[in-house]
Amino acid sequence: MALTHTAVANAKPKTKAYKLADGGGLYLLVKPSGYKVWRYDFSVGTSRGTYTIGQYPDIKLKDARDEHRKAREYVAKGINPRNIKEEQTIANDLDNKRFSHYALEWLEKQNIADSTRKDLKQRIHKNLIPFLDKKKINEFSTLEILNIMRKMSDRGAIETAHRMANVTRRIYNEMLMLGIIENNPAKDLAELLPKPDIKLKGNFGHITSPEDIRVLLQQIDNPTTTQDFATTQALKLMPLVFLRPKNIRFLKWEFIDFKNAIINFPADELKTRKALAVPLSHQAMTILKDIEPLTGNGEYVFVSSHGQKNNGKPLSEGTTTSALRRIINPATGKPFGTGYMTSHGFRHMASTQLNELGYDADTIELQLAHENKDRVRATYNKAQLMGKRIKMMQGWSDYLDKLKAEDIDEVPPKRIIK
């Protein structure tokens, strides 16, 4: 006998749970606590199961019967009716959750350093989310996503375009595996993008001749009137500490020990996942003290005037490299452009010149924060070479000052530093 609204409403709890059947396997389960829930017992092939429709009174008798009818149609086709709720969840996701939700969810699962995660999050927010959040995640074609990647490659950021294409592919692939989408429109994006310049890939644009370095440093010291002060100060510091660009961008005031003239990077800020101490020369200290009155009350050292108005965000990715591309070649009066020097190129420049100047190879490698596969030797370096590193960093800054002043020869002399 079918249930009535009155019977459902008046059903009282007993010492044991009991069922009120409505027919066709649909029933109301009444628990001793007074909790009432609609359920449907079904069989698909040799498998038996129970499909929970929902709680009464949130789901009335009529609604429970409608859901029960849909579930029986699934069973008649040999399909587990629990798939109904999975499809409803997916439909809700498509309506309410855009690319940003899945992108940030994917990012949190990645086993990467915090600094790397922060950098990647900023890239996703800048290059992907503003465009991929405009429609539902299943409404983008490969061509539409490709055009988003081309926005990056068209501005010269080909490596970034390839990296973001790979990230988008992985995010969409995760949605595909979860059954949220039926195909991955970002699967082969990288194949459709311009190929990176082989000459620059892996080496980064950099210079090594003293004459080129002289011109570069002189131009950095004489920026255009439109260049932001934070960008100028970052460019001045880069050749003195030769850190990776993102460690400059995300440099925090809390890492800087002015008393002992050192930057102490915690392990989670570095690619190697190892803490690093960076001795500061007198010249480097002056650069940091010059910008401290502007950004010292915030978290990051290098914050542009725009960033100060935008929650203290640090310099954007590519800011310093773009500034380097705009540096004027005195011989032609035109910008040097792409390939002359990149932010990362300062590391190659310092490594080449310091070796040429005769500094100890272990000291150079340790200061560059390169991985040392010899654990015993790595321990020795960390414990014993700080004194040499302090002398090297000051000596390097002094050398660059003399180079800017045109007081040294074209080819630097060989000098063995004890």
Task: Explain what you see.
It is built from 18 helices and 9 strands. It is of the alpha+beta class and 418 residues long. The chain has 3 domains: 5-81, Integrase, DNA-binding domain (Double Stranded RNA Binding Domain, 2-Layer Sandwich); 96-192, DNA polymerase, domain 1; 210-404, hpI Integrase, Chain A, CATH 1.10.443.10. The strands form 3 sheets. Strands 1-2-3-4 form a 4-stranded antiparallel sheet, with helices on one face. The chain has a 3-stranded antiparallel sheet with strand order 5-6-7. Strands 8-9 form a two-stranded antiparallel sheet.
Brief summary of the model shown:
The chain has 418 residues and is of the alpha+beta class. 48% of the residues lie in helices and 11% in strands.
Strand content: 5-15%
Averaged pLDDT: 83
- The CATH level-2 architecture of the largest domain is identified as Orthogonal Bundle
Main beta sheet: strand number and arrangement?
A: 4 strands, antiparallel
Number of helices: 18
Helix residue percentage: 40-55%
Task: Give the oligomer, counting copies of the same chain as homo and different chains as hetero.
Answer: single chain
Structural class: alpha+beta
CATH topology of the largest domain: hpI Integrase, Chain A
